[in-house]
Amino acid sequence: MATSEKTESGYFTSEDVDAAPANINSVLVNPFIGMRHEKMDELIEAFINKTKIEDIYHEVIRKGAFLAQDGEAFGGPRTDSLRLKPEEIEALRREDPKTGNKWDQPWILYALVAVQGWDETAVNGAQLCSLNWRLMLASPMLLPLIAAAYVFTLPESPRWLLLKARQGKTAYYEKAFRSLCRLRHSRLQAARDLFLMHHLLDGEEKIKQNRNRFVELWSVDRNRRALVASLTVMFLQQICGVNVMAFYSSEILSPVLGDKAGLLASMGFGILNFLFALPAVYTIDTFGRRNLLLCTYPFLAFFQLLTAMGFLLPSGSHSRTGLVLTGMYLFSVFYSPGQGPVPFVYSAESMPLYVRDLGMSMATATLWFFNFLLAVTFPRFQYSFGNTGAFGYYAAWCVVGWFMILFLVPETKNLTLEQLDARFNIPTKTHARWAVKEVVFVVEHYLLGRKGASRPVLSVPTESEAEMDKRRLPPRKLSMEIEQREIPDTEA
Questions:
Q1: Where does the sequence pass through the membrane (predicted)?
Q2: Which segments in the chain show pLDDT lower than 70?
Q3: In angstroms, rounded to a whole number, what is the distance separating the alpha carbons of residues 387 and 115?
Q4: Most buried residue among 38, 277, 303, 304 by CB atoms closer than 10 A?
Q5: Long-range contact pairs involving 52-57 (C-beta distance under 8 Å, separation at least 24)
Q6: pLDDT value of position 474
Q7: Is 352 left (phi over 0), alpha (psi -120 to 50) or beta?
Q8: Cα separation of 231 and 270, whole Å?
Q9: pLDDT at 463 (0 to 100)
Q10: DSSP string of 145-181?
Q11: What is the pLDDT of residue 408?
């Protein structure tokens, strides 16, 4: 039987702490599930006493705590005197995806979004100027300086403030609450998130004391598969050659168009990159991360190859100019909604909560390492193999990348944390076999028009209810098998 261990502000059992890694998410998502009203009152009182938040916030903290336990806590009759105000009900309605608008967020959240790549444009153009090294060093300074000054107007990270508060600096609890108030529509939402974040930190600390997270990042199958998938998409984002065009497009195009026209043409690449990234705001959650990559990578390979072939045409000819620009611009069009945004979203969501910071750090480091490698090797590639050989090399990697995504990158669209555990618990070999059958189905059903073709389906059985009750944790998803499902013939 599990023993209970009381922390300063919460209860975590030895069973929670020793839980299999596939189930740790359930411990960290909501530590209040199933807790009695009396126990919640104890936690709330302990939290208020510890944080020493002003008395005027005590009521909203209490309401926020019960909302942290259950989003429907105020949806029916209550035995206590806590009631929501009309403006609090409205704030929760705006937040609910069923009744609100996902774009209806405090303006400060949008202000946190920074524009990336302007410094690349400055460096890009500086390569063509007579004072190139001075401009290359100085031109990227302006926008980062503006961004650095702007940072001081933004609220501090509530999580960071809570970590400082847990070191004995009690005043930081109220600072964290005020920061959350700027990031939410109402104090109620800020109080709810503050209470939940504080107790989740208890769970994180307890879990870290009993396991080596870095080792489990590699040794636990579910973690390793998510890490491999994340590193794959980050690696491919760079090796497809996009930043060769971002960094060197002016230099590449100047022999084709001339210096000034080459610089203007390189701006077109950046503009297209921005414009065609906008549809991903919708498609990344509807079409899916994996599907976006699989559908766009053949085009990336084709247009890199088209660009490479353009440099084989006679220098100065209109056909060479047209083919090179067409290849580069259409590459940007298909890169932007797929391989542009997907790696960051995918890496951030695929890792389990308890190792997410380590996994995301490694994924980001991989991206910037290959960004650096691409930037320093292209001039040598260009000198040794010419533009045709260099772009042909990146086209080949796009072909290889399609197969890497097919076999190593599972879909994560609209999956809960527990469903992500299930998806990444599927053995890689099994997923690869299913992927091959899925490709065969797509060819037969959509290209050859065989409407009765059977589509392979991933099914993940769970443990029995008896095993669930015995372990007191949500079910650990076990094995996976490929089933056949008939696709009904919709034609008359």
A1: 133-154, 226-249, 261-282, 294-313, 325-346, 358-378, 390-409
A2: 1-29, 111-140, 459-492
A3: 29
A4: 304
A5: 52/170, 52/173, 52/174, 53/173, 53/174, 53/177, 54/174, 57/177, 57/187, 57/191
A6: 35
A7: beta
A8: 25
A9: 44
A10: HHHHHHHTTSPPPHHHHHHHHTTT-THHHHHHHHHHH
A11: 96
The Cα 336–Cα 424 span in angstroms is 27
Strand, coil or helix: what is 484? strand
Burial class (CB in 10 A: 0-12, 13-18, 19+), 315: exposed
Label residue 427 left, alpha or beta by phi (over 0 means left) and psi (-120 to 50 means alpha).
beta
Position 472 scores a pLDDT of 34
**pLDDT digit string, tens, across residues 176-221:** 999 999 999 999 999 999 999 999 888 877 777 777 888 989 999 9
Secondary element (H or E) of residue 332: helix 318-335
Tokens of 128: 């063509």
Positive or negative, the Cα torsion across 378, 381, 385, 389? negative
- CA dist list (Å): 37 to 32, 33, 41, 59, 65: 10, 11, 6, 16, 11
**Rounded to 5 degrees, what angle do the CA atoms 17, 216, 229 make?**
125
Residue found by looking up tokens 């042909």 in the block: 392
Total Cβ atoms within 10 A of residue 234: 25
pLDDT attached to residue 15: 45
Q: What single DSSP character describes residue 5?
A: E
Residue 482 phi, psi dihedral angles, 5° rounding: -95, 120
In this structure, are residues 241 and 397 in contact, taking their beta carbons and an 8 Å threshold? yes
Question: From CA 235, how far away is CA 368, in angstroms rounded?
Answer: 9
pLDDT of residue 447: 85
Rg of the chain over CA atoms, in angstroms? 27
State how far the alpha carbon of 448 is from the alpha carbons of 292, 293, 435, 439, 452, in Å.
22, 23, 19, 12, 11
Buried b / exposed e along 179-203 (16+ C-beta atoms within 10 A): bbbebbbbbbbbbbbbbbbbbbbbb
H or E segment and range at residue 377 = helix 356-408
Per-residue confidence (pLDDT) for residue 195, from 0 to 100: 95
Tell me the C-alpha distance between 22 and 478, whole Å: 10
- Which residue do the tokens 């599972």 mark? 410
